Automatic annotation (TrEMBL), chain B:
It is a multi-pass membrane protein. CDD domains: TM_PBP1_transp_AraH_like. This is Sugar ABC transporter permease. It is found in: Cell membrane. The chain crosses the membrane at residues 40-65, 72-92, 98-118, 125-148, 168-189, 219-238, 258-286, 293-317. Coiled coil: none annotated. Keywords: Cell membrane, Membrane, Transmembrane, Transmembrane helix. GO terms for molecular function: transmembrane transporter activity.
């Protein structure tokens, strides 16, 4: 099609190259938009707030949102298949407080941490089985997982449990600094999760199947792809991420608390959507979700910088989410027209 | 008998009856209703009264889900509605004046209606997915409510307003009448006119129904407006019950309870089929479950586990595959296909 229309455009070759680039990377466009908005926001804040030091602020945003980043990675997998996982905040709270309790009872870190990841995986598997084998809507199935995990968190303890284990505290207290930038092991865990997930989605057969299932489940099935296994796997991955996020959050706050992560599932979904992943599935990137988490974190930082009230934080987050969704909607309808 | 067993309200009602039976066995006074000063008292009356806000919200949610949507913003709309009403009453020199209260209620419900218009606009005109379109208001709505109350928990003292949730008429709580009137109005509109059928048509396939001449955009929009308005009334009942507008706590998680009530009542989240009677049963089930959990001495914090278990059982019972698994195990001879209504015509 490009070769046919190219002669008509003639001199405007730069625009056609631009259009060709866009049409080939149409699914990346929302991510580019998110990056652009992130850069504009950073530039604006640096101009407006004199004590806005880029390395320090960005490092602290990564530090403060490491758990959200881990959750967003798992959520991206689920949303890519067209599902949704509302249980992540509650699973994070449950694994976080159980981890704190086990460590307090003298269980070694080498046992407690893998156990938490396994518990996350088990809850994810439960949701996946409900979705896949009993035709329960992902929304309802993950809601069951949410109630279950939240209740279990309260069963473990009604109050916060302080962590005094050196291994867990090390995750947060160690800082590797470089020219004003700094990172903690929790930040490294979050970035590693992003890197692994990006690799899996881009270069493995499983990753391509995830996109295929989200694009059109029926076609994927007819092509002989392992749809059932893939859909089960994404919920397990999301559960694993939630378990990991529980450990990260426990390290970050130095304690487990059963009310942690109330509403975090919606923050996670918002970050993933801001990062350009379509809720209908089939299109999106883990890198986009990372950008989404940064945008989300930066909004909150800016608002706390400007000393605005909690009410404006919420309204701004809602308005920005709307902006992204509308932009996405326009992009999607355009790309649908061009086909 | 077979027809009776396959009716879609059988399982929801069975679940409710089972719950009531468990309650009555563990606490025989559960069913007893006493009369004091011409007012009825008892656990069942409490359930009727406390279920009113959830009933209103779930009713709107049923309509939205019937169009294949979902409305996550109902809790936030409740918070805004309560904040508007109480701010108006607080600002007036006579908080006990019936006229002032009426104005406050009308303004609050009007605001909720406008928020429903906003949701409907995003979904039906801009074509944004319902879960995200309403998530916007869910995130921003409580911020708006906080703005209205200036970040404080507004408390008032007004007898007519207090009557909304705590008053009694003819021995029964006034809030119960509000919810029943809403059920009747929605039921008549949806089932005695073609509106219900059109709503289901839109839910099954919006594009096909549009091509068939159904004004699907208007019907979807209307469902969100109805949901917003009903949530506004629920917000008034909630704020009247505690006589305070708490932007953070009002209607917290009610969207999840409402969705559960709708699903427990047998309405599919896939849209296209809804049952108002089912929603009513679902609401009573959830409210009874909550009262059971409280009575059994389960710490309120642990109650989510019980909720999860109960919902899991009901959802599995409603799962066709789960049921067919037991059918196949029970009697392999009777093929479900022959029970289809059109089977007679074919044979």
């Amino acid at each position: 099609m490009t070769t046919l229309t190219a002669p008509e455009r003639g001199a405007a070759s730069s625009t056609s190259a631009y259009r060709r680039f866009l049409s080939r990377h149409i699914s990346w466009v929302p991510v580019f938009a998110a990056v652009a908005i992130l850069i504009i926001m950073i530039a604006g804040s640096m101009a407006y707030f004199p004590n806005f030091q880029l390395p320090r602020i960005m490092s602290s945003i990564l530090l403060d949102n490491a758990y959200l980043l881990v959750l967003a990675v798992g959520m991206t997998f689920v949303i890519l298949t067209g599902g949704i996982d509302l249980s992540v905040g509650a699973v994070m709270a449950f694994t976080g407080i159980l981890c704190a309790k086990l460590l307090g009872d003298g269980v070694p870190v080498a046992v407690a941490v893998p156990a938490m990841v396994l518990i996350g995986a088990a809850i994810g598997l439960l949701i996946g089985v409900l979705v896949q084998f009993f035709d329960v809507q992902p929304f309802i199935a993950s809601l069951i997982g949410m109630f279950l995990a939240r209740g279990l968190a309260f069963v473990v303890s009604l109050e916060s449990i302080k962590v005094e284990n050196d291994g867990i505290l090390w995750l947060q207290s160690t800082r590797f600094s470089f020219a004003g930038w700094y990172i903690t092991p929790t930040g490294i865990i979050a970035l590693l999760t992003v890197a692994i997930a990006a690799f899996v989605l881009r270069y493995t057969r499983f990753g391509r199947t995830v996109y295929a299932v989200g694009g059109n489940e029926q076609s994927a099935r007819l092509m002989g792809l392992p749809v059932v296994r893939t859909k089960l796997s994404v919920y397990v991955i999301s559960g694993v991420c939630a378990g990991l996020a529980g450990i990260v959050l426990t390290a970050y706050s130095g304690a487990g608390y059963p009310l942690n992560g109330v509403g975090t599932e919606l923050d996670t979904i918002a970050a993933v959507v801001i990062g350009g992943t379509l809720l209908t599935g089939g299109s999106g990137f883990v890198i986009g979700s990372m950008i989404g988490v940064f945008v989300y974190g930066l909004i909150r930082t800016i608002i706390s910088f400007s000393g605005a009230e909690q009410s404006w934080t919420r309204i701004t987050v809602g308005a920005l989410l709307l902006l992204f969704v509308v932009v996405q909607r326009i992009i999607v309808s355009r790309s649908a027209l061009s086909r | 008998m077979k027809k009776f067993l396959t009716h879609r309200l059988v399982w929801p009602i069975a679940a409710l009856i089972a719950l009531i039976a468990v309650n009555t066995i563990s606490r025989p006074s559960f069913l007893s209703i006493t009369v004091q000063n011409g007012q009825l008292y008892g656990s069942l009356i409490d359930i009727l009264r406390n279920s009113a806000p959830l009933m209103l919200v779930a009713l709107g949610m049923t309509l939205v889900i019937a169009t294949r949507g979902i409305d996550l913003s109902v809790g936030a709309i409740m918070a805004v509605s309560g904040a508007v009403a109480l701010t108006i009453i607080e600002a007036s020199p006579e908080p006990g004046n019936l006229g002032v209260v009426m104005i406050a209620i009308v303004a609050a419900v009007g605001t909720a209606l406008l928020l429903g218009v906003w949701n409907g606009f995003l979904v039906s005109v801009l074509g944004i997915q319902p879960i995200i379109a309403t998530l916007v208001l869910m995130l921003a709505g409580r911020g708006v409510a906080l703005l209205i109350t200036k970040g404080f928990i507004t408390t008032i003292n007004s007898d007519p307003y207090q009557f909304m949730a705590q008053g009694y008429v003819l021995g029964l709580p006034f809030a119960f009448y509000v919810s029943i009137v809403a059920v009747i109005v929605v039921g008549v509109l949806e089932r005695r006119t073609a509106l219900g059928m059109l709503t289901e048509a839109v839910g099954i396939n919006p594009e096909a129904s549009r091509l068939a001449g159904v004004r699907s955009r208007g019907i979807i929009w209307g469902a969100y407006i109805a949901s917003g308005t009903l949530a506004g009334i629920a917000g008034i009942l909630y704020s009247s019950n505690i006589m305070a507008a708490d932007a953070n706590a009002a209607g917290l998680y009610i969207e999840l309870d409402a969705i559960l009530a709708v699903v427990l009542g047998g309405t599919s989240l896939a849209g296209g089929k809804f049952s108002i009677a089912g929603t009513v049963v679902g609401v009573f089930t959830i409210q009874t479950l909550k009262s059971t959990i409280t009575f059994l001495g389960v710490p309120p914090a642990v109650s989510p586990v019980f909720m999860a278990a109960a919902v899991l059982v009901v959802v599995l019972l409603q799962s066709p595959r789960f049921r067919s698994f037991f059918h196949a195990a029970g009697r392999s001879a009777a093929r479900p296909l022959t029970r289809r209504p059109d089977a007679k015509v074919l044979s």
